[in-house]
Specification:
mainly alpha, 1 helix
């Protein structure tokens, strides 16, 4: 009986040693697998970070292009405003030219009238001088 208990104790101890040794190996294997998984995660995170940097760079380029387009839109707006201002000024100038044309036409009419009056005056003077000459001849 004692031999059987001792033998069971030895077998039990061996089983415990085997179990303990197996647990240690399993733990080490699990630690190794965890390290591999961790390295894969870190590698994938680095890839993601790299892609994010590329994306951010592209976004900055897009923002730069948007700023350039906004600058061009502002320039077009300023040009349109200047163009509208020029149209208004051209209308004002055209109005002044029309006024000037009207005044020139009035001056031409006045000059025609003055020429006509001058011609009438010259005819009157001619008739008057002829009439005085006749009077002088009649008197002589």
């Amino acid at each position: 009986l004692e031999y059987g208990v001792a033998k069971m104790g030895e077998d039990g101890g061996a089983d415990q040693a085997k179990t303990s040794n197996a647990e240690v190996k399993a733990t080490e294997l699990l630690k190794g697998q965890m390290k591999v998984v961790e390295e894969k995660i870190v590698a994938k995170m680095n890839v993601v970070e790299s892609k994010m940097n590329v994306f951010e760079s592209k976004m900055n380029a897009v923002e730069g292009k948007i700023d350039a387009v906004e600058g061009k839109v502002d320039a077009v707006r300023k040009f349109d405003a200047l163009n509208e201002k020029m149209d208004v000024n051209m209308n004002v100038v055209e109005g002044k030219f029309n006024t000037l044309d009207g005044k020139i036409v009035s001056l031409e009419a006045i000059m025609v009238h003055l020429v006509e009056q001058n011609m009438k005056l010259m005819q009157l003077m001619k008739h008057k001088s002829m009439g005085e000459g006749d009077l002088i001849e009649d008197a002589v």
